[in-house]
Design goal:
Layout (H helix, E strand, L loop, with lengths): L5 H17 L3 H8 L6 H13 L4 H14 L3 H6 L1 H9 L12 H18 L3 H14 L4 H17 L10 E3 L4 E2 L1 H5 L4 E7 L4 H5 L1 H11 L4 E7 L5 H11 L6 E3 L5 H6 L6 E5 L5 E5 L5 H9 L7
Parallel strand pairs: 3-4, 4-5
Antiparallel strand pairs: 1-2, 1-5, 3-6, 6-7
Length: 303
């Protein structure tokens, strides 16, 4: 018997590895379908495997819906609207991965259409669809109304400008301004935080990563402390403990930025243009932040 040729051995090994890779249990595939860390491409790849493994089509569509909602991706939701509409017409509670009724599906269809209308600046359509979503699924009204609040804030922010000449202090007590920190760069991304804010502190590693990556694209990242007590000492202490290498600032006690930007909760990130225009005002993990950043520099890649 002749020995196997090298290329045949390689082919057999590749086939074996591929078989191991695709031989995933339905439970494992379901976990991957609803993995909050999955990218869109990863989800689409998993949906193919899930279909071949016999996972109900309804659950696969629900996974696509959840991904689009979680990432507030209007384009994604628009593409799967035909699937959602078929799902609503043929909804089977026994096959559901978590949704409870056809009206719940229809509420998310309306919500998806509202996001699309928002992206197109179609206020009339946005209002009609978001109200339809609330009517169909009042239990999710808080989620739907967050979009309304966000839209109102964006409209208000569009007419405001940040005073880049406002005197503030750094972690070591030196006087400075946002204009000084911005210099000749393309934009300034300010993260508002406080030591008592658990989510703020949990996101510090991400803030450091943003500062490092965005600096390559002409974006200055700065942290701005909002502690009411011992702000100078707290800011200096955390500057050293966290090994901060980007602007580490303290908001004046009068809270000029908090009032102007209507910062009622933190963590909060604000992207500011060199002319003081507000390009983004929201949560650091809002996908809209990366959309705003990419408008400043198209070379920026979302994580």
């Amino acid at each position: 018997m002749k020995p196997l040729r090298p290329f045949l051995i390689a082919a057999l090994l590749t086939a074996s590895l591929h078989a191991q890779e695709t031989a995933q249990s339905p439970q494992e595939l379901m976990q991957r379908l609803f993995d909050p860390k999955a990218s869109g491409d990863e989800l689409l790849e998993t949906t193919k495997k899930a279909g071949m493994a016999g996972i109900p089509r309804q659950q696969i569509i629900e996974a696509k819906l959840v991904w689009g909602l979680r990432n507030q991706d209007a384009e994604w939701l628009g593409k799967i609207l035909p699937e959602l509409e078929v799902l609503a017409e043929n909804f089977d509670r026994t096959q559901s991965a978590g949704l409870k009724s056809a009206d719940e599906i229809r509420s998310f269809i309306a919500y998806s259409k509202a996001l699309q209308a928002q992206a197109k600046n179609d206020d009339a359509e946005f209002k009609q669809q978001i109200l339809e979503a609330i009517w169909l699924n009042p239990g999710q009204a808080q989620i739907f109304t967050q979009v309304i609040e966000k839209k109102r804030i964006e409209a208000k922010m569009a007419s405001l400008k940040v005073d880049l000449g406002q005197v503030i202090t750094t972690h070591d007590g030196e006087a400075t301004t946002l204009a000084d920190q911005l210099g000749d760069k393309k934009a300034l991304l300010v993260d508002f935080w406080a030591s008592w804010c658990g989510p703020c502190m949990q996101l510090m590693p991400e803030l450091k990563k943003k500062a490092s990556e965005l600096s390559k694209h002409g974006i200055v990242v700065a942290g701005m402390n909002k502690d009411d007590k011992d702000a100078q000492a707290v800011t200096a202490k955390l500057h050293d403990e966290l090994s901060i290498e980007f602007p580490w600032l303290i908001e004046p006690a009068e809270r000029p930025f908090t009032k102007l930007l209507e910062i009622e909760s933190i963590p909060r990130m604000v992207l500011i243009a060199p002319n003081g225009q507000i390009l983004f005002n929201g949560h650091p993990q809002d996908p809209a932040l990366w959309v705003a950043l990419q408008k400043v520099n198209p070379d920026i890649k979302a994580p």
